[in-house]
Amino acid sequence: MFLLLKTSYKRFMNYCTDRPIKSMEEDLLGRVTFSNNFAEAISGYDGKDCLVIGLFGSWGTGKTSVINMALDKINQINQNGIKKLIVMNFSPWNYSDQNNLISLFFKCLKECINQSNNKELKNYVGLALYQYAEALAAVVLPYNSVLAIALKPLAKFIGSYLMKEVSLDRAKKKLEEKLLDVEAKIVVVIDDIDRLTNKQIRDLFQLVKQVADFPNVIYVLAMDRDIVCSALSEVHNLDGREYLDKIIQIPFEVPTIKKSKLEKIFWIKVDDMLKDICNEPTEKIEGNTIWYAIVYLYCIKPYIKSIRDLNKLVNVFRFRYDVLNQEVSTVDLLGITAFEVLEPSLYKWIRNHKIEVCNGKVEKKLGLKEKNDFRMLCSKEFMDLGLNPEVAIKSVSILFPQFSKSVNENIFHQYSNNKVRTISDEKGFDLYFLFDLEEVKVSKGIIYSCIYLFHKVEIYNRIMEINRRGDIIIFVEEITALIDNIPSERIEIIASVLLDLMPELQAEPLHFFCRNKNNIAFHNLIELVRQLVSKIRTEQERYEFIRLRIDHANAIELGIMAYFIRVIERNYERPISEFKDKNNLYVSLRHLEDLKKSYVEKIRSITAKEDLLMSPDYFVMFKLWDKLDREGVQIYLETLFKNKINILKFVCRFSTMQHIDEIVGQYCWTFDFQSYLEYFSEGEVCKIIHNLDITQLKMFTKEEQTILASFVLNYSTEKKKTYNGIEVIQLVDKWNSTNRKS
After folding, report:
1. How far apart are the first and last CA of the chain?
2. Which of 222, 236, 377, 490 sits CB 3.0–4.6 Å from 191 for a disulfide?
3. Of residues 58 and 28, which shows the higher confidence score?
4. Is the CB of residue 335 less than 8 Å from the CB of residue 304?
C-alpha cells in the first residue's frame, strides 16, 4: 500500500463547518425575505399579552440561520425606531431538573435586563423579578434547591425588604404590572428544542406557559415539530400535536430549500475545493461538465435534502479526494461518496456486490433466464433496504455501465480521463472503498463531524456509541491530535460534551473506567479536556466555563473539577517563565480563589444529600476539600464514620495499587490515611473486617474485597516480610467460603 494519508491541517481548515449564518449578507439560500417578515411579525406585535411564536423545520433546514437573520433585522429596527426590543437568547442545555431550569431562566433574564440600556426596566422590573423569584423559590422549590440557594446573595444585596414574606400570586401580579408599565418588550429566543430529552422538552413548555408567561414577553421557539410532538405525546400520554398547538400561537414553517439553489451552492463548494487541492477548476480535471451534471442529477440530487447534507458530502469527498485524486475518477468518487454519506444502505449494497455491478452477463451466473429477472431481483433487494427501487437502479447504472446493461437501463457513459481507474473497473473498484468508514474503528468522518459539524446531542450520542464498542481510546487520541484545528467557537461545545459524558461512561461496561489500558484512556480524556479548556479564548471565559461546571456538578463531575483546580494550583507553584502560553494558567489568582469557594460550597451541598464514597475520584475530591475546608471535612467524617462499613469504604478509597502479580493478574495495595487515624486505628479497621458477616461482605466489590484482604495482610505481616497476590486471593476465597453469620 503506497498511499499515505496526506491531508494537511492547512487544507482541512477549509472544511465546511456547518455553522449557521449570522447576518443577511451571508444568505445564499434566498431566505432574507422570509427572515425579514419573521422579524417584522415579532417587532410588529402591539399586544400586551405573552405571545409564543413557533419556528418549525427539520434538522438541517436552517432554523438557527433564519433566527440570526431575523435578529439582525430586529437590531436594525431598534437602531432606527422608537420602539426597542430586548432580546434574550436562552439555551436550556445544562440543567439537572425542573427547579434548576427555572433557576437558569431567571438568572439569564436578570442578566438580560441588567445589560439593557432601559433604566426603567432595570429599576422597576428588576426588583419585581427578584420578588417573584424569591416567592417562587419559597413556595414551589425545595428549600435546598439551586434557585433557593442562588437567591440568598440576591436577597442580601437588595436588603431586608426582599426577606418579607410574600405570596407567589401577589409577587407575580406585581411583576406583571411592572412589565405592563414599562414600554419595552422582551423577546426570549429558545433554539434547538428538539435536541433536548423528552423530559426536558416537557419542563421547558411548562416554564413558558405556567411559570414565565409574562406580559410584554414574546417567546420564539425553534424546533422540529415531529420530534417535539412525539416527545410531548410520550411524557404526557396525550396527543402531542394538540398540546403544542395550544402553546404556539403563531406558527412559522421554515421555507423548503429549492433544489436549484442547493445545486448551485454544491458546485461552488466543490469547485473551490478542487481548486484548493489541484489548482484546477472542475471542468479541467475531467473535461466533461455534462457528465458531472448527469452524476449530480441521478446520484446526488435524489438524496440531498438540506444544506447540512450538502456540507457533510463535500467534507467527506474532500477528505477522500485529497488522498486519492491521482488514482481515481473525480466524478465517480463524487457519486459513490454521495451514496456513502446520504444513502448508506445503497453504498453497502454496491460494496458487497462487486461482481454484479462491474461484470455483465450476470444472468447465467445467477441462473436467471431473462434480463428483466435480474432487474426484478435488484428491485426487490432495494425495496427490502427501504429504497425507491427505480431511483436506486438509475443511480447505480450511472456509475456502472455493465450493470446498466444487465438491468436494461439505457444510459450513455463517457469518461475522458484514461489515466485513472473508474469505479466500474474491477481492478479499480476497491480503491473507492479504501477508506471505507465502516472498516475503520473510529472513522475520520466521525472525528471531523464531531469537531466541525455535530451539535452537542449528536456528539454525545456518537461518543457513547464509540465507547460501547470499546474504541474510546482511539477517539480520544484522534481528537487530541487535531486539537489545534478545532475552531475557537467549538472548543466549549466539545469540552462540555466530554465532561457531560463522564458520569454516563462510568455506567458502561469496563471499556472506559477500569484499570490497565482503560485507566490510561480516562487520564487521556482528562488531559484532552484540560487542553481544550486552556484554548478557550479569554481568561474570563475560561473562568466562567469552569465555574459553571462546578455549580452544576454532581458527585462524579465534581471529582473532575477537583482535578482542574489542583492543576491550576500546581501551575501557579511553577515559575511563570516555564509557560510558553499563559493560557495554561487558565484563570487569575482572584478567580482561582473564587473557584475554590464554589467548590467547597458545592461539595458541602452534595455530601448533605449523596454518598461521595461511590465516586471514582473520591480521593482527589476529598483531599482538595480537606485542604480548603478542614472544618467542613471534620463534620463530614464524624457523621460518615458512625457507620462502620463506611470506614472500610474510606480505606478502600485511600488505597493505591503497589504492583501487579503477573502470574495471577491481581493487585497488591498500600494505604494512605495516616492523617485520619484520629477517627479510627489500623487495629480497629482489621477488627471491623474480621467481624463482617456474609451479607456485609457482599456490600463490597471483588476489587474492594481484594483491597481489604491486602490491608489485613499488610497490618498482620512483619515489616520485612512481603505477601503476594496469591495470598490475597486465598484470603478473599476463604472469607467467601466461610460460614459467616448473616
Report:
1. 65
2. 222
3. 58
4. no
